[in-house]
Amino acid sequence: MIRPATYDDILAMVELGADLVKERKLPEIDKSATGDVIKAHIDGTDCFAAVAEIGDKIVAGLLLYRTKFWYSKQEFIADTVFYVSPAHRKSDLPHRLLTVARKWAQGQGLPLLLAVSTGEGTGADQLFSRAGLKKIGGLYLDGG
């Protein structure tokens, strides 16, 4: 089940973030700062936070926010994170999470811009391509 995130989900989402950082070999996660970012997305009026649960375990997280490029007045919805645990990437969960992101962006009346930090040919790259998003460098645009 995919649902809006609550404060009760913050610790589990921080752990997902730690998994992402470890998987991508990024610098060590600051769990306190990560929790603050997640809380801001839960509280924000221009932000959205969602989780996917299987049983009682959170296995995916989505954080979106309204922004614009420094050189343009065009606003869009961007992802802070779009992460699905490795064990669930070959299921329909990534597609369902993408559908939630698209619906939230459409509800805001703005295009959706998603980043792929894992590189070409990866699951996210393939998911966004197959879903018809327009590739622009390492980004994917839907509705712009």
Q: How does this model look, in words?
A:
This protein is α+β, with helices and mostly antiparallel strands and 144 residues long. It has one domain: Gcn5-related N-acetyltransferase (GNAT) (Aminopeptidase, 3-Layer(aba) Sandwich). Helix content is 36%, strand content 31%. The protein contains 4 helices and 7 strands; from the N terminus they run βααβββαβαββ. It has a 7-stranded mixed β-sheet, sandwiched between helices. A hairpin with a 2-residue loop joins β2 and β3. α1 packs across α2. The protein is globular, with a radius of gyration of 14 Å. The model has no long low-confidence stretch (mean pLDDT 91).
Structural features:
about 140 residues, 4 helices, alpha+beta, Aminopeptidase, 7 strands
SSE map:
Layout: E1 2-4, H1 10-24, H2 31-43, E2 47-54, E3 57-68, E4 75-84, H3 93-108, E5 112-115, H4 123-130, E6 134-136, E7 139-142
Parallel strand pairs: 4-5
Antiparallel strand pairs: 1-2, 2-3, 3-4, 5-7, 6-7
Instruction: Assign the CATH superfamily.
Output: Gcn5-related N-acetyltransferase (GNAT)
Helix content range of the residues, please? 25-40%
Sheet with the most strands: spatial strand order: 1-2-3-4-5-7-6
Largest sheet: 7 strands, mixed
Query: What is the CATH first-level class name?
Result: Alpha Beta
Beta content: 25-35%
What is the first-to-last residue Cα distance?
29 Å
Which of globular, elongated, flat, extended, rod-shaped describes the shape? globular
- Output the structural class: alpha+beta
Q: How many domain units? A: 1
Number of helices: 4
> If classified by CATH, what would the architecture be?
3-Layer(aba) Sandwich
User: What sequence of helices (H) and strands (E) makes up the elements?
Assistant: EHHEEEHEHEE
Counted beta strands: 7
Q: Could you list the spans in which at least 5 consecutive residues all have pLDDT below 50?
A: none
Average residue-wise pLDDT: 91
**CATH fold descriptor:** Aminopeptidase
Please give the radius of gyration in angstroms.
14 Å
Oligomer: single chain
